[in-house]
């Protein structure tokens, strides 16, 4: 029998501003949040970033551990979604401010989806 370890997700009351801001201090992680901001759950294989798969996995773990995202495992596949409502309840306005600034400064634009086409 195979036992799958379930990822731990902090409850909203356990989320700290320092952990969330630390998770959002990397352009790749900000890019992942920008991709997930549409509210859809995405499979890890759908996400594209200019880093190795192991590094992408690390970035997703940092976001999960801070409470920014929720990860769900289904068989051998992992899915991730932004915890917008939890973040908005715990830190009102923070996520919108980060997303607005990231868009304005083009932070994280190198992260996207496998289905995205690159304009030449």
From TrEMBL:
Alphabetic keyword roster: DNA-binding, Transcription, Transcription regulation
Keyword Transcription assigned: yes
Protein known as: Helix-turn-helix transcriptional regulator
PROSITE patterns: HTH_ARSR_2
PANTHER family: TRANSCRIPTIONAL REGULATOR, ARSR FAMILY, TRANSCRIPTIONAL REGULATORY PROTEIN
Domain of life: Bacteria
A UniProt-annotated Pfam family: HTH_20
SUPFAM superfamilies documented for this protein: Winged helix' DNA-binding domain
Coiled coil segments of this chain: none
Alphabetized GO MF terms: DNA binding; DNA-binding transcription factor activity
Domain HTH arsR-type intervals: 9-102
Matches recorded under InterPro entries: ArsR-like_HTH, HTH_ArsR_DNA-bd_dom, HTH_MetalResp_TranReg, WH-like_DNA-bd_sf, WH_DNA-bd_sf
SMART domains the record matches: HTH_ARSR
Organism of derivation: Actinomadura rudentiformis
